[in-house]
Amino acid sequence: MNTDQQQILESFDNPHPGNDYTVRIEIPEFTCLCPKTGQPDFATLILEYIPDRHCVELKSLKLYVTAFREQGAFHEDITNQILNDLATLCKPRFMRLTGRFNVRGGIYTTVIVNHKQDSWEPETLVQLP
Predict the structure, then answer these.
(1) Angle, CA of 95, 101 and 103, to the nearest 5°
(2) Which terminus of the chain has fewer Cβ atoms in its 10 Å neighbourhood, N or C?
(3) d(CA 15, CA 21)
(4) Which domains are assigned to the chain?
């Protein structure tokens, strides 16, 4: 990840910082390059997070993700890299990024990475009748 890509990302103040709520963002057209062959890799990224003081600004997220199109990276590396950049930007209570990579050589890869603030504990799940 280069600094130019990180500088693309923007956040905005969470309008409801007192609430634990989940933001889910699906990015169905993620592409990067295979570091071995240079062939394109395609994936759907699913970002889920519970914001603290800041939220990810969507246009900047789109531009940030698009910047990976010419970058060679292993699926595990790029998924962790994106989560780390987003967690650094927003400092969420909790964040999960799932990368569902399309088939390559007969193999599908799904990479799931999590980030959690040390002091944050999730609310107890309420079961409704």
Answers:
(1) 160
(2) C
(3) 11
(4) 3-116 (3.30.1130.10)
Q: What sign for the dihedral angle of Cα 72, 74, 77, 83?
A: positive
Pairwise CA distance, residues 22 & 50, whole Å: 5
Residues 37 and 104: their CA atoms lie apart, in Å, by: 11
pLDDT at 51: 97
Residue 41 bears catalytic tag: yes
- The single residue of 4, 13, 32, 41 carrying the catalytic annotation is 41
Q: Does 118 participate in catalysis according to the annotation? A: no
Q: What was the pLDDT predicted at 1? A: 45
Give mean pLDDT in consecutive 10-residue pieces for the chain, a chain of 129 residues.
Answer: 72 96 97 93 97 97 95 95 97 97 92 93 84
Distance of CA 104 to CAs 40, 59, 64, 107, Å? 10, 29, 24, 5
Q: Which of 4, 13, 20, 34 is catalytic?
A: 34
Start-end of H helices in the chain = 3-8, 58-66, 75-90
For the entire predicted model, the pTM comes to: 0.90
